[in-house]
């Protein structure tokens, strides 16, 4: 390929954060090219906190989102520090309730909106050799895509933060963690509308109903505590659920049957040491990652995608403080999250000598 793709902004990653940035930038009149692969298979990340509908409305997706059939989430329940469930509902939240979504359909909705408002979506990886010179990013042509020329880059590549790390930016680890996640299909009517968190000696379980008559469930734990093969079976998962009576009974009450093979994914809490640099900004999981006790879910991806894009637009209009200010806000947000998460971990004192909790109590 010899022609050159010219854009104001190249976005690396077509997930929720990348698409939120693309829509925001296109609304501002910028030419946007989004590189990303449509990921096959199931992924976790299906909850939206009460603040999400307002963000989706800003992206022009308020009505479309509701038409897509998300499940309302009216409360969070937790067995934390006690075997008795404690409830936090959204009745007094002026923003309303949260939602549980089908992740693949949610991402498809965002991609369709990005294209509809003028962003160009290119299937595949962005050029890895993007180099910054005289205020312009340039990348060489590949077999699949032409050479690239853009004023800005948005790193929305997820936890890998591939672009930012190639710029020499390191990732700061707060604590390591993995999630063993699985999906189960119900055989009885699904009539629950809440998220459940249940602490166990090995970590904590998360479960939530999602559209299509299914539950998503994840054990947040440390990889060293489990045999990587045996726990990825129905019997292995069942043995782990034996320590989680609320989660187990929830699934049994709906006749839930395991679908597919459970998988381990990284669920560590991390942040980039800086979320911006000359001509670039990081959003979503590329910038910072929380675990589910923070109760933000996909809302954090939408929020940072929009905010990072708005900072970039301000920079394009001459406000040199916008990108550093955005990065500083993320740093403050991560520190507040870290303090609150560690406080919550200290609230669970039933198994102080269990390796998972012992590690967190020492952080």
UniProtKB/TrEMBL annotation:
A UniProt-annotated Pfam family: FAD_binding_3
Instruction: Identify a single GO molecular function assigned to this protein.
Output: FAD binding
FAD-binding domain mapped to chain residues: 6-322
What protein is this chain from? NAD(P)/FAD-dependent oxidoreductase
């Amino acid at each position: 390929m010899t022609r050159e793709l010219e854009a104001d902004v190249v976005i690396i990653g077509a997930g929720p954060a990348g698409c939120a940035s693309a829509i925001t930038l296109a609304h501002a009149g910028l030419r946007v090219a989004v590189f990303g692969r449509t990921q096959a298979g199931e992924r976790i990340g299906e909850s939206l906190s009460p603040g999400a509908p307002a963000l989706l409305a800003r992206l022009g997706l308020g009505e479309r989102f509701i038409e897509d059939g998300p499940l309302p989430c009216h409360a969070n329940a937790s067995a934390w520090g006690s075997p008795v469930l404690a409830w936090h509902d959204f009745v007094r939240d002026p923003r309303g309730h949260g939602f549980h979504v089908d992740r693949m359909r949610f991402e498809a909705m965002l991609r369709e909106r990005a294209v509809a408002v003028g962003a160009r979506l290119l299937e595949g990886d962005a050029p890895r050799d993007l180099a910054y010179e005289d205020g312009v990013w340039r990348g060489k042509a590949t077999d699949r895509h032409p050479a690239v020329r853009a004023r800005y880059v948005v790193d929305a590549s997820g936890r890998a933060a591939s672009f930012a790390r190639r710029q020499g930016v390191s990732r700061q680890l707060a604590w390591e963690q993995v999630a063993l996640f699985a999906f189960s299909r119900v055989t009885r009517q699904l009539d629950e509308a809440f998220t459940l968190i249940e602490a166990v000696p090995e970590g904590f379980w998360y479960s939530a109903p999602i559209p299509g008559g299914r539950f998503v469930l994840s054990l947040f734990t440390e990889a060293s505590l489990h045999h990587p093969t045996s726990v990825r079976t129905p019997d292995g998962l069942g043995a782990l659920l034996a320590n989680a009576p609320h989660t187990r009974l929830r699934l049994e009450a709906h006749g839930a049957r395991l679908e597919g093979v459970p998988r381990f994914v990284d669920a560590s809490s991390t942040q980039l040491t800086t979320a911006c640099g000359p001509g670039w900004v990081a959003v979503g999981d590329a910038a910072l990652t929380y675990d589910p006790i923070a109760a933000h879910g996909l809302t954090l991806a939408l929020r940072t995608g929009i905010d990072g894009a708005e900072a970039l637009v301000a920079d394009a209009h001459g406000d040199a403080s916008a990108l550093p200010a955005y990065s500083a806000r993320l740093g403050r947000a991560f520190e507040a999250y870290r303090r609150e998460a560690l406080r919550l971990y200290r609230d669970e004192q039933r198994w102080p000598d269990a390796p998972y909790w012992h590690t967190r109590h020492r952080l």
